[in-house]
Structure formats: structure tokens, C-alpha cells
Amino acid sequence: MLNIALFGPPGAGKGTQSEFLIKKYNLFYISTGDLLRKEITHKTKLGTEAQGIIASGGLVSDEIIVQIIEKTITDNPDSNGFLFDGFPRTYIQAYILEGLMLKLNTSLNCLISINVDEEISVKRLLDRGKTSGRSDDNEVVIRNRLKEYNNKTLPVLQFYKDKGIYNEINGEQSIEDVNFNITEIINNELSKKLLNIVIFGYPGSGRGSQGKAIAKAYGLEYMATGEMLELEIINNTETGIRIQEMYENGQLVPDEIVVQLIEKKLTNTKGIKGFIFKGFPRTLVQSYILDGLLKKHGSSISKIIEIEVPTLELIKRLDERSKTDKCMPYDTSTAKIVQRLQEHETKTVPVIQKYNQLHGVSKINGLGDFDEVYQKISFEIENGFKNLR
After folding, report:
1. Which of 21, 93, 293, 382 is most solvent-facing, going by the fewest CB within 10 Å?
2. What's the pLDDT tens digit per position in 170-180?
3. What is the CATH number of domain 195-388?
4. By three-state DSSP, how is residue 76 classified?
């Protein structure tokens, strides 16, 4: 997810640049003023509350603003990210946005400040006033707005300078040159991001074979927890010996061991473009673990894909597989197959629902031959992320 805060004094050209960024990177535009007006127009609970405050001459509280922003983010899971214009306006709001981003398992990637000399801002806005018909495009109001911007914004900019994500652009250049400079900043930011894909699907959906093919095509590290555990056993590592003992005693391998293996991979990302996770997370607990692991290593989930196949087709596929050398432990009888499908439904489907609410899940029709399904998955990845790089 790409999240950008765009700053600049009145007349800096934020509107023009915002339109460009929204289209190029498929971002959802967040302007607190626009959002408030929308809530008021739709007579939502928050909108009614805000309208009452505005009508009485008060300022809408940060508490209401942050709820509206959170609602907007969660209501638009298909966006590649969000462009914040006019928020955060104050030092306190910078902390609020930080907390909100953490809650939503994401972060602000960069702040871009379009710098323009005050006299140029005044000239631009006065020129706009000749045709805009806006009553606030007069010199007294313009200079007051610029003074307010500088007084409130400087502490916010310092907040992001301290975080190391502040970038500034000379806004006195041509629109095209400002465009170019902003694109450079964003592309540089995106080059640091790993492409992390989680692939879901019931047993028999083909997620393993598709996951490996996608990993190879996009230069990703394939992370299948079952294979990782088996590799530890084959290599006769200390962890592998423990895993083998658990298997022999009919015990489940605890998350503690799985997490250690995943983290080992995450700490060595040199030359790796990202990861594709298959078989993890299986449970809600594991989903929080994965979110935390990626966050710890400065990364996050980029794309979530679910391969959908009708239940009867799944049973047919698994039954056919049971007669080959690719037979899995849960393929050996119809009862075991059904049990494994039920386990996925009770434990893993809630994970998919959680991610669908937070990030959005791309649903892929898993019917058809391998190449047909692969093309569908590849198309989703290309549309969702290649345009960001």
C-alpha cells in the first residue's frame, strides 16, 4: 500500500498534482474538508454530529475527523493506497495519523512538500481570483491563509523530518517538472518495498502449484510452512529434530517454531523482491503474527489472493490426487478430505474475511486448466502492483 501526504501552501499546485498522483498510482484522495461535506450530505451519524458543531460556530474535533478517515480507508480496500491532502494539519494530528496507520497495519510512506515563495503564492491566487469567482481569493485573506499554514504546518513538517520520510519539491518549476520530481520520489520509495503476496484457497484449489509458478515469474521467495518444516527435518537441524519428534508423537508444530523459520527468511532479503506465503497464516492468531513480523522488518502485505473452487470439484481433485505420488496425508480417505475442508472453513475463512475488510482480497475463479488460472492470477498482480513500480 502506498500512502502519501501532500503538503504545500495555498497556490502551490497541490490540486493539479493530486489529480496526477491519483490516476497514476490508483490512490484514493483524502481531503478532510471533502470527507466532512460528504458525511454531512449523506446525513450519517458522524456527519450530523459535525454539522451541529459547525452550525454552532465550533471546529470539528480530531476525534470525529479520525473516525471519518478510518471509515474511508476501510471502505476502499481496492485502492493501492491513499493520498492525504489537508491532514495532518497539526502536530497532534500527525500523532493521530501515526496511530491510525498502525491500527490499520500500514504506514505513511512519505510526505511531499511543494515549496513556493509567499509572493508567488499570492500572485498565483490573485490571478486565479480573476476567473474563479471565489471570495477568498483576495490579498488580505490570502496572506492570512498563508500565515496560518506556516504557523501550523512547520511543526508537522519537522515531525516527518525526524521520521526521515520528508521530501521537498521546488513548486516554482513548471507543472511537468514538479510532476517529474514527485514521480522520482515515489519510485524511489516503491523500490524499497517488497512485494508480499498471501495466497489462499481450500485444499485442492491449486494454490501450491500456482504459488510456485507466481514466485518464479516475479522473482519472489516461496514460503510454504509445510515445506520449510520438512527441509529442517531433511537437513537434520536442531529444529528439524524437534519437529520430527513432534510428528512421531502426533503433536502439532507450535507457531513459535514456524515464526522463527519465517523470520529467518525475512532477515535476509538481499536480492529478494518479495515473498509469496502459502499455508501461513492459517488462523487469526497467525494472521496477527504475520502482520507483526512484516511490520518489524519494515514491510507489509502487498496483495492477497484467494483461489475459489466449488466444494464438489475440490473433493474430486483431492480424491484423484490420493491415487498419485502427490498424495497428501489428508487425501487418503473421503472422511479426511472433508475434515480438512471443514478445518479450512472454520479456521482460515475468518482470516480471509479479516484481510478482505482491511486490505481487500482478489477472488480468482480456480476452474479451468493450470495456465488459465495462472493468467487470471498474473493479471491481478500486474494490475495491482506493476503500475506502482
Report:
1. 382
2. 999 999 999 99
3. 3.40.50.300
4. coil
